[in-house]
């Protein structure tokens, strides 16, 4: 939190007042000497801003400070010429109040314009070397309009004072600093708090300074002296805001954006987690709907034959009733057969419901029995696609885990093999299921003759959300691995063989 009390203690205030008073006294005794001191202070500060911004430009996330620094060097060059051509000095030919005043207006226009343009680069970067060349070229052109081509408008006339152009220019410059102050206020959070306060103070002092330069007649008038004191104060604020803070707290100045990111990181992470949860929920819901569709399709296949049988029985009863040959014994037998078929259909529903119920605790179960129960439910849909399933089990193999979740994994692998076989139109499509025990762990392998998984993606098939099908969710195999490896402490792997892909389920022994 910025505090003027913390920034300016009593000693700093006393020294500042003493320095300004001394400058005023020097100005009353020897104005040219006073003017050189004031201008040299401004030039040193401007060069310091350029030096720091230029050598730290690769650390900036935007180009505001760099833009301000590069422009400050060009302004410093014009201010140096202004100081050397001031009334009372004969360092440069063509010296005098008219030329010095022209250089003053040129420097202030360049400074105010550069500050306004710098706000355009708060959210972007630019190439620093072309920028430096551009500002030095602009400064050279402005100086040439005064010394070489002599086309720069008159700003001061000996004996009559300031020209109308000079006064209007000062008001325009004041307006430009006011706009800069407004832009600073709107982008306040883009700056370090200390830098923002010092920039605001600097712009304010520059505005008041320019206002005092609209009313003097002689270049040694007291209003001219007050204006230069205010200019010194404005440059001191720039010095505090950019030079001192840039050296003593460089990370606050140069990594302002990084601090903002760290401040809001927790909120951004929370929102991202919420979005991922919503995405996961939608995908899980989609996967459940797909599983429901699979289950409905399998039930339909299981019911088709009983429904056809019931239809034939009903038609037979109707025909016998029409012919007058229907007797009680035949009616009783037909009703019994329909009852058996409906019980079988009801058992199919119960078997599917049991399949999708989660086991609460691990329990021993027979792998071959669970696989055959599962195949009894889905063989209809596989047979319709012309797919044959061969199961081989050398012995009764028991595993410890969740039997229904294991069956869901096998069902998911069977569905993947079925889809690959159908999509690739494999002749004599076949799925082999082998149940064995290698002496340490129960092992179930499921393979097909669909040609295998492409080598460039086989290492990704268990990744969440990875799918090669447009309608796929990409969570089936990922969830299967989670069930086998995390819930049942086993292993689920895949490899390619000559005919196709081979999935291996290594489980815990009972």
Task: Quickly list its features.
510 residues, alpha+beta, Rhopdopsin 7-helix transmembrane proteins, Helix Hairpins, Heat Shock Protein 90, 3 domains, three-stranded antiparallel sheet, 15 helices, 9% strand, rod-shaped
Bin the helical content. 55-70%
User: Which CATH architecture of the largest domain is right?
Assistant: Up-down Bundle
Strand content: 5-15%
Domain module count: 3
Q: What is the number of beta strands?
A: 10
Query: What is the assembly state of the chains in this entry?
Result: single chain
The CATH class of the largest domain is identified as Mainly Alpha
* Major pleated sheet: 5 strands, mixed
CA gyration radius, whole angstroms: 44 Å
| Structural class category | alpha+beta
What's the overall geometry? rod-shaped
> Do you know the CATH topology of the largest domain?
Rhopdopsin 7-helix transmembrane proteins
Mean pLDDT value: 82
Give the CA-CA distance, first to last residue.
66 Å
Strands across the major sheet, in which order? 4-6-7-9-8
Please explain how this structure is put together:
It contains 15 helices and 10 strands. With 510 residues, it is α+β, with helices and mostly antiparallel strands. The protein folds into 3 domains: 4-254, Up-down Bundle (Rhopdopsin 7-helix transmembrane proteins); 265-357, Helix Hairpins (Orthogonal Bundle); 358-510, Histidine kinase-like ATPase, C-terminal domain (Heat Shock Protein 90, 2-Layer Sandwich), CATH 3.30.565.10. The strands form 3 sheets. A 5-stranded mixed sheet has the order 4-6-7-9-8. A 3-stranded antiparallel sheet has the order 3-5-10. Strands 1-2 form a two-stranded antiparallel sheet. It starts with a helix and ends with a strand. The mean pLDDT is 82.
């Amino acid at each position: 939190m910025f505090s003027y009390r913390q920034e300016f203690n009593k000693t700093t205030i006393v020294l500042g007042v003493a320095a300004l008073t001394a400058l005023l006294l020097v100005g009353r005794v020897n104005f040219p000497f006073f003017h050189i001191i004031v201008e040299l202070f401004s030039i040193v500060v401007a060069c310091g801003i350029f030096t720091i911004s230029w050598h730290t430009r690769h650390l900036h996330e935007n180009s505001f400070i760099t833009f301000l620094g590069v422009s400050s060097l060009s302004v410093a060059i014009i201010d140096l010429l202004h100081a050397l051509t001031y009334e009372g000095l004969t360092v440069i030919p063509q010296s005098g109040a008219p030329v010095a005043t022209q250089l003053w207006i040129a420097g202030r226009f360049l400074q105010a314009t550069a500050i306004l343009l710098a706000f355009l680069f708060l959210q972007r970067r630019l190439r620093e070397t072309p920028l430096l060349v551009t500002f030095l070229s602009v400064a050279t052109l402005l100086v040439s309009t005064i010394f070489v081509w002599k086309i720069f408008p008159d700003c001061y006339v000996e004996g009559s004072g300031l020209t109308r152009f000079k006064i209007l220019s000062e008001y325009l410059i004041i307006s430009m600093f006011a706009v800069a102050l407004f832009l600073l206020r709107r982008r306040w959070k883009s700056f370090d708090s200390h830098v923002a306060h010092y920039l605001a103070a600097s712009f304010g002092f520059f505005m008041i300074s320019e206002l005092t330069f609209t009313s003097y007649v002689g270049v040694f008038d007291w209003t001219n002296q007050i204006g230069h004191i205010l200019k010194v104060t404005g440059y001191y604020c720039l010095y505090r805001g950019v030079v001192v803070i840039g050296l003593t707290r460089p990370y606050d100045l140069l990594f302002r954006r990084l601090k903002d990111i760290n401040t809001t990181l927790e909120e951004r992470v929370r929102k991202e987690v919420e979005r991922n949860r919503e995405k996961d929920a939608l995908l899980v819901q989609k996967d459940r709907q797909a599983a429901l569709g699979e289950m409905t399709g399998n039930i339909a296949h299981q019911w088709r034959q009983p429904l056809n049988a019931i239809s034939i029985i009903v038609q037979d009863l109707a025909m016998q009733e029409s012919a007058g040959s229907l007797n009680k014994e035949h009616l009783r037998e037909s009703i019994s057969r329909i009852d058996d078929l409906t019980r079988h259909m009801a058992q199919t529903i119960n078997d599917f419901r049991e399949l999708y119920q989660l086991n609460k605790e691990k329990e021993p179960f027979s792998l071959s029995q669970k696989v055959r129960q599962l195949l009894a439910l889905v063989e209809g849909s596989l047979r319709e696609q012309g797919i044959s399933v061969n199961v081989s089990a050398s012995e009764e193999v028991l595993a410890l885990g969740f039997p229904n979740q294991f069956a869901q994994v096998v069902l998911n692998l069977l569905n993947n093999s079925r889809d690959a076989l159908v999509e690739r139109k494999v002749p004599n499509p076949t799925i082999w299921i082998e149940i064995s025990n290698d002496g340490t762990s129960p092992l179930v392998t499921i393979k097909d003759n669909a040609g295998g998984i492409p080598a460039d993606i086989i290492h990704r098939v268990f990744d969440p959300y990875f799918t090669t099908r447009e309608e796929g969710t990409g969570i089936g195999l990922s969830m299967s691995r989670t069930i086998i490896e995390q819930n049942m402490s086993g292993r689920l792997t895949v490899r390619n063989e000559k005919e196709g892909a081979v999935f291996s389920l290594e489980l815990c022994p009972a």
